[in-house]
Design a protein that fits this description.
- The structure holds 2 protein chains of 2 kinds.
- By secondary structure, chain A is an alpha/beta fold.
- Chain A is built from 8 helices and 10 strands.
- Chain A has 2 domains: 6-84 and 159-265, P-loop containing nucleotide triphosphate hydrolases (Rossmann fold); 94-157, no CATH class.
- In chain A, the strands form 2 sheets. Chain A has a 6-stranded mixed β-sheet, sandwiched between helices. In chain A, strands 2-1-4-5 form a 4-stranded antiparallel β-sheet, with helices on one face.
- The model of chain A is unreliable at 1-5 and 268-275 (pLDDT under 50).
- By secondary structure, chain B is an all-alpha fold.
- Chain B has 2 domains: 33-62; 69-276, MetI-like fold.
- Chain B contains 12 helices and no strands.
- Mean pLDDT of chain B is 86; it is low at 1-30.
- Classes of the chains: A alpha/beta, B mainly alpha.
- Chain A binds chain B through residues 50, 53-55, 58, 61-64, 80-83, 85, 87, 89-91, 93, 95-97, 106-107, 109-111, 136, 138, 164-165, 169, and chain B through 2-4, 7-8, 10-11, 14, 180-181, 183-190, 194, 198-199, 202-203, 205, 277, 279-280.
- The complex binds adenosine-5'-triphosphate and magnesium ion.
- Adenosine-5'-triphosphate sits between chains A (20, 22, 27, 29, 47, 49-55, 216) and B (2-4).
Chain lengths: 275, 281
C-alpha cells in the first residue's frame, strides 16, 4: 500500500487477540494488541507475569496462531514458523546428546540447508566460544549455554530475533555481559530484536523502545522511547533519566496489578451481604 | 499451564530424569564402570577363590553329587555334554530372538505412536501395566493347547513378556521431551516426523535401552519357563529332564549356560547404552 517500502514496519502486529480454552473456561490472554516494529530496532517488552508477553512473542514467531488479528512480517501475514525469524528461549534448550557444533547445525538439519560455516565461526568467535565446538552442553555453564543458543538462533541469518526472557536464569554479572553481547551483535548485524524481560534495567539498557504490557487481559499499556546512543555503557543506568524511567515503568506495572486486584475483589465483597 | 510455565520446567525434568522408569540408565551406562584391567583381574580372582572354596568345602563335607555337584564336575559335564546341549541352546535362542524381536518392535512402535496422543495413552496405560505385571508364563499351558508343542506358544509368550516391558520404558522415554525442545524444533519449521526422529527418539534412547535390557531378560525367563511347561526341546526342557534323572552336573551346566546368556544380554545393552546414551550420565 505504501510506495516507499522502507516506511513499512518490519513487523506489524494488528489487533492481536488470543483466547485460550482452559478447563475453567475461556481465558483472554491478549486483547487487541497493535504494534509496529521498525526494521533494525530493539524493542523490549516488560509487564506483569501472565500479561501475555510470551503469547505475543509466540504469535510473532508463528509458533501458534491468534484467535483474531494478525502479525505481518515484511508485508506478509505470518502463518507458521518462518526462516526470517530466530528464537531464543529462557532455557538454552540445547539438545543434550549433541555437542555445541551439532546443536548449532540443528536448524540446518531441520531445514535441509547447508550451514554457512564462515558465518557460524564468526558468531562463535564473537560470543567467545572459540574452541568449544566439541563440548557437550552439560560441560557448559548457563551463560555459555545461552551463548550457544544465541549463535544457533543467528546461525541462519534471521532478520528478526525474538527472545523470551533469555537471560532470566543467569546471575546479574553474566546477564550484564550478555546484554553487552546482544548490543554488539545488534550493531554488527542490525537484526530487528524483540526481547521480553522481567528486568526493567535490561529493558532500558537494550531497548530503543520499551513496551509495557498490562495484566490480564494482556494489552499494550504504554510505550516508552529510550533516547540513548549506541553503543551504550552501563554508566547510563545511573543517570537521572533512567532513574525516572525506571520508576515510571515500575509504577505502571505495580499500579496496574493493584488496580486489577481491587477489581477482582469487589464482586466477591458485594456478594457476601446477599448470601 | 502456560507455555512459558512449561519452559522453565525443563531444568526439573532433566534433573529428575534419572529416577524415571524401572531401572536407572545411569546404572547401565555409568555405574561403577569396569574399565581397567585391574578391575577385571580382581573380579576374576574373586570368582576363582569362590569357586575354589566351594570345591574344597564340598570335598571336605563329602556332599553327595545329587545334592550339589562340585564345580569341577559341572565343568566336566559342560565340556562333555555341550555337544548334546548346544542344539537346545539354539532352540532357546531362536525363541528368545524371535519372541523378543517381535515384542520389542511392537512395543517400540506402540510407545512411539501412543505418546503422540495423550488421551489414548491415558486409556491404554493401565492395560499395558496389566500385561507387565501378569506373568506370561501363566498363559503357556493355554497357548500349548492352541498351538501345540512347537516354537509358537513359546515365541508368543516371550513376545508377550518382553513387549510390554519395552513399551512402558520407551513410552517413559518419549514422554520425557519437554515442550521447550519441541517449540525449538517447531520454530525451525520441523514436521511431526522430524520432531520424532530428531528430538523425541534421541531423548528417549537411554530409556529405550533400559526397556530392551529388562525386556530381553524377561523374555529369557519366559522362554526357559515355557520350555519347562511342555515340549521336548530347549534349555528349560533340559533342566526338567536332567533334574528328573538326577543328573545334577548336567543340570548345573545348563544353569551356567543360562547365567552366561543373561550376562551377555546385560553386557550387550550396557555397551549399546554407553555408546549411544552416554550424554545422560
Ligand atoms: N497454552 C495455554 N493454555 C491456557 N492458558 C495459557 C496458555 N499459555 C498461556 N496461558 C495463559 O495466558 C496468560 C498469558 O500467558 P503468557 O505466558 O503469555 O504470559 P507472560 O506475560 O509471558 O507471563 P510470564 O511473565 O510469567 O512469562 C496467562 O494467564 C497464562 O496462564
Ligand atoms: Mg512468558
Amino acid at each position: 500500500m505504501n510506495a516507499m517500502g522502507s516506511l513499512e514496519p518490519k513487523l506489524r502486529v494488528k489487533a492481536a487477540t488470543k483466547v485460550y480454552q482452559t478447563g475453567s473456561g475461556d481465558l483472554l490472554a491478549l486483547d487487541r494488541c497493535s504494534l509496529d516494529i521498525q526494521a533494525g530496532e530493539i524493542l523490549t517488552v516488560v509487564g506483569p507475569s501472565g500479561s501475555g508477553k510470551t503469547t505475543l512473542l509466540w504469535a510473532m514467531s508463528g509458533l501458534h496462531g491468534l484467535t483474531s488479528g494478525e502479525v505481518v512480517l515484511d508485508g506478509k501475514t505470518i502463518k507458521g514458523p518462518n526462516s526470517q525469524i530466530g528464537m531464543v528461549f529462557q532455557e538454552a534448550n540445547l539438545l543434550p546428546w549433541r555437542n555445541v557444533d551439532a546443536n548449532i547445525r540443528f536448524p540446518f538439519e531441520i531445514k535441509g540447508e547447508k550451514p554457512d560455516e564462515a558465518w557460524i565461526a564468526s558468531l562463535m568467535h564473537r560470543v567467545g566460544l572459540d574452541g568449544f565446538g566439541r563440548k557437550m552442553p552439560r560441560e557448559l555453564s548457563g551463560g555459555m549455554q545461552q551463548r550457544v543458543a544465541l549463535v544457533r538462533a543467528l546461525s541462519f541469518k534471521p532478520s528478526v530475533l525474538l527472545m523470551d526472557e533469555p537471560f532470566g536464569a543467569l546471575d546479574a554479572f553474566t546477564r550484564e555481559e550478555m546484554n553487552h553481547l546482544v548490543e554488539e551483535i545488534y550493531l554488527d548485524t542490525r537484526t530487528t530484536i524483540v526481547l521480553i524481560t522481567h528486568s526493567i534495567e535490561e529493558a532500558i539498557f537494550l531497548g530503543d523502545r520499551i513496551v509495557v504490557m498490562s495484566a490480564r487481559p494482556g494489552r499494550i499499556a504504554h510505550i516508552h522511547d529510550v533516547p540513548f546512543a549506541r553503543p551504550r555503557s552501563m554508566d547510563i543506568m545511573s543517570t537521572r533519566e533512567v532513574f525516572d524511567l525506571t520508576n515510571t515503568i515500575k509504577r505502571e506495572i505495580v499500579g496496574d496489578q493493584q488496580s486489577k486486584a481491587r477489581i477482582a475483589q469487589r464482586p466477591a465483597a458485594a456478594a457476601t451481604p446477599g448470601n | 499451564m502456560s507455555n512459558s510455565d512449561a519452559i522453565p520446567e525443563f531444568g526439573k525434568t532433566s534433573a529428575g530424569s534419572g529416577e524415571v522408569g524401572v531401572a536407572n540408565m545411569s546404572a547401565l551406562t555409568a555405574g561403577p564402570g569396569i574399565n581397567s584391567f585391574r578391575d577385571v583381574a580382581i573380579i576374576v580372582a574373586v570368582a576363582v577363590v569362590v569357586i575354589g572354596s566351594v570345591e574344597v568345602l564340598l570335598n571336605i563335607f563329602a556332599v553327595p553329587q545329587y545334592v550339589l555337584p562340585k564345580p569341577s564336575e559341572i565343568a566336566v559335564a559342560l565340556y562333555t555334554d555341550f555337544g548334546f546341549i548346544a542344539p537346545h541352546l539354539g532352540h532357546t535362542l531362536i525363541e528368545l530372538f524371535s519372541g523378543f524381536g517381535i515384542g520389542a518392535v511392537i512395543g517400540l512402535i506402540l510407545a512411539a505412536v501412543i505418546t503422540q496422543f495423550p488421551f489414548a495413552e491415558k486409556i491404554i496405560t493401565p492395560y499395558i501395566l496389566l500385561l507387565v505385571t501378569t506373568p506370561m508364563l501363566a498363559l503357556v499351558p493355554l497357548l500349548i493347547l492352541r498351538f501345540g508343542f512347537g516354537y509358537e506358544p513359546r515365541i508368543i509368550a516371550v513376545a508377550l513378556a518382553s513387549g510390554p516391558m519395552v513399551m512402558i520404558n520407551a513410552a517413559t522415554g518419549f514422554r520425557r521431551v519437554d515442550s521447550g525442545k519441541i517449540a525449538l524444533a517447531r520454530s525451525y519449521g520441523a514436521s511431526t516426523l522430524q520432531i520424532f526422529w530428531k528430538v523425541r527418539a534421541p531423548m528417549a534412547l537411554p530409556m529405550i535401552f533400559v526397556g530392551l535390557m529388562v525386556g530381553s531378560i524377561f523374555g529369557l525367563l519366559t522362554a526357559v519357563g515355557a520350555e519347562m511347561v511342555g515340549g521336548g526341546f530347549g534349555l528349560g526342557n533340559r533342566l526338567t529332564s536332567y533334574s528328573s534323572m538326577i543328573q545334577m552336573p548336567q543340570f548345573f551346566a545348563v544353569v551356567m549356560i543360562l547365567s552366561t546368556l543373561g550376562i551377555l544380554i546385560y553386557v550387550l545393552f550396557f555397551l549399546l547404552g554407553k555408546k549411544f546414551a552416554s550424554w545422560e550420565a
